[in-house]
Design goal:
Blueprint lengths: L1 E3 L1 E5 L4 H4 L17 E5 L2 H19 L10 H6 L9 E7 L2 H4 L6 H13 L1 H4 L3 E9 L6 E8 L1 E2 L7 E2 L2 H4 L4 E2 L2 E2 H19 L2 E3 L11 H44 L2 H4 L5 H206 L3 H29 L8 H16 L6 H12 L1
Parallel strand pairs: 1-11
Antiparallel strand pairs: 2-4, 3-5, 4-6, 5-6, 7-8, 9-10
């Protein structure tokens, strides 16, 4: 696992610089597009989202218009109680020597920071992140996270406010509470994310490698930067001392504001506001103390590094002197060697020049041949281009001609179809008229035929009735029954004979002479089997049907 340091510190809070609205000399403009923006929200919109409802509820309770809050953002911006509109932290893994642009671990540190930022908002519900960006266009990848602290649980005044101390009350890691505990927890989270990618987090100065010349130059530039930072730190310390004095004075003034003495004359909202002022100054003082401690630690580390660097510079100077001496000896040896081989070299050079001249002539001839081939190819290309133009023009003419011919053909077909359609329409109308005429005629005929058939059926019924009465009167029913019986028997016999003859003729082994004999024999057998036809019940049924 590679070893690196981590840093979570307070930022300057320049939103325009973070979003690259303006650029500084330490930015690589070609890599600005690589920056990753996680959150980008207007701060006024963020204030309305966080505190809008609380402001409405607070104003609804105020009877005096002068005590209402028109714009909470402007109220904080114009406040002289030490409140800040927002806070910013800068998160970094590694430094420019082990994780700078161009090193193997540059992308690995980017992945660690991206993983760390993936659940940052869910992990910190007590703050509202309105701007977060990862800068990849500088020497090392790092995060700028701008947030608004959310203090909740106030009994008087607004129930939700911009308060760093109140928002950090729930955090405690060991002996560190409040914002220090929160810093410690975030460092633990960042360490765990770094371990996922094979990075071991160490404290500064736990490891020290020997610097090369280029690394030494970079280190010296870093030393100069830290020297400037040291001067800035001195100014910050003076400012911190001044703020401590002011804080002591304000603590004394706050101690004098006893509710027993002034609660009768000062509203409880003013008293809470004074407490808020004190909390803001305490928060600011805590942050400054943390930054002061870190800066002091960096200054001490820089001093140690500077001493080690000076020692290494001396060693490098000694090595450089030794290298120069070795170089002089090598130069002298080279001169002696050059003198010893100069004659052989001149002869070899002469042979090489002759070979070069011959090769040059061969190449010139080859170039001339290639030039001729190029000219031929150019002429061929011109001919092909001309041919392509001719074919294109011919194709265009052919398309126009075919288009015109098809256009004429289409118009002729269209006119013909229109004429046919018109003829079909007229024929359909004529058929429709004819159908109507025939329909009327057939309907009249059907009615006439229907009447005729009804008359004939009535006549037939009368004839049947008269015939039946005639047969009964003249005792002819039995005679008719016998006649019908004989007639039916003859018909059955003829059908049976035809059926048997047809079956006999299907047999290829029976000749024409044998057919009558076999036919007669079969008929007799069939008559014996069909004696039932002469049964008295059948004759009776036939006579009854005739009588009906």
């Amino acid at each position: 696992m590679s070893e690196k340091t981590i840093s979570i510190s307070k930022g300057k809070g320049s939103i325009q610089h973070n979003n690259r609205k303006f650029e500084t000399p330490n930015i690589d403009r070609l890599r600005v597009k690589d920056n990753i923006t996680y959150v980008k929200q207007d701060i006024k919109e963020a204030y309305q989202q966080i505190f809008g409802k609380a402001v409405e509820e607070y104003n609804a309770k105020q009877k005096k218009k002068c005590r209402r809050i028109d714009d909470y953002y402007e109220k904080i911006r114009q406040s002289k109680n030490g409140e800040e509109l927002f806070h910013e932290v800068v998160v970094q893994v590694g430094d420019m020597t082990d994780s700078g642009y161009g090193t193997d671990d540059f992308n690995k540190c980017r992945q660690v920071l991206d993983d760390y930022m993936s659940d940052y908002c869910e992990r910190n519900p007590h703050i509202h992140v309105f701007n977060a960006v990862m800068h990849l266009d500088e020497q090392t990848p790092h995060l700028h996270i701008s947030f608004i602290p959310i203090g909740e649980g106030y009994k008087t005044g607004m129930n939700v406010r911009n308060s760093l101390n109140k928002s950090m009350e729930a955090y405690s890691v060991g002996d560190k509470v409040g914002i220090l505990g929160w810093y410690e927890r975030e460092r633990a989270v960042l360490t765990e994310r770094a371990n996922r990618y094979g990075i071991e987090i160490t404290q500064k100065n736990e490891r020290r490698e020997r610097l090369s010349v280029s690394e030494y130059k970079q280190t010296m530039r870093e030393v100069e930067r830290l020297t400037e930072a040291k001067n800035d730190l001195k100014n910050d310390i003076k400012e911190l001392e001044r703020l401590k004095i002011e804080d002591k004075t304000q603590k004394q003034e706050l101690a004098e504001l006893s509710p027993k003495k002034f609660l009768g004359r000062v509203p409880s909202e003013d008293y809470e506001e004074l407490k808020q002022v004190a909390e803001n100054y305490r928060s600011k003082l805590t942050l400054l103390e943390v930054e002061n401690k870190e800066l002091k630690q960096e200054v001490e580390e820089t001093k140690v590094n500077q001493q080690k660097t000076i020692k290494e510079v001396k060693e490098l100077k000694q090595e450089l002197f030794e290298i120069k001496q070795t170089n002089k000896e090598l130069v002298k040896g080279r001169e002696d060697f050059e003198k010893s081989v100069k004659a052989d070299y001149d002869l070899k050079l002469l042979y090489e020049r002759q070979d070069f001249a011959i090769e040059k002539m061969r190449l010139e001839k080859k170039i001339m041949d290639l030039n001729d081939d190029v000219e031929v190819e150019k002429q061929t290309n011109k001919d092909l281009a001309k041919k392509i133009e001719e074919v294109t023009e011919e194709k265009k003419t052919l398309i126009e001609r075919v288009t015109n011919e098809w256009k004429v053909k289409y118009e002729e077909l269209d006119n013909a179809w229109k004429e046919k359609y018109s003829q079909l329409g007229r024929a359909y109308k004529a058929l429709e008229q004819k159908y109507n005429t025939l329909s009327k005629g057939w309907e009249q005929k059907y009615n006439q035929l229907n009447q005729t058939w009804e008359q004939k059926l009535e006549r037939l019924e009368e004839l049947k009735k008269g015939t039946s009465e005639f047969l009964k009167e003249n005792n002819l029913i039995e005679l008719c029954n016998n006649f019908l019986k004989d007639r039916q028997a003859k018909i059955r016999e003829e059908k049976l004979r035809q059926s048997i003859e047809k079956e006999i003729r299907k047999n290829p082994y029976i000749s024409e002479e044998q057919i009558p004999t076999i036919l007669q024999k079969r008929l007799e057998e069939a008559k014996k089997k069909s004696r039932v036809l002469h049964h008295p019940e059948i004759s009776q049924n036939q006579s009854q049907s005739l009588g009906r």
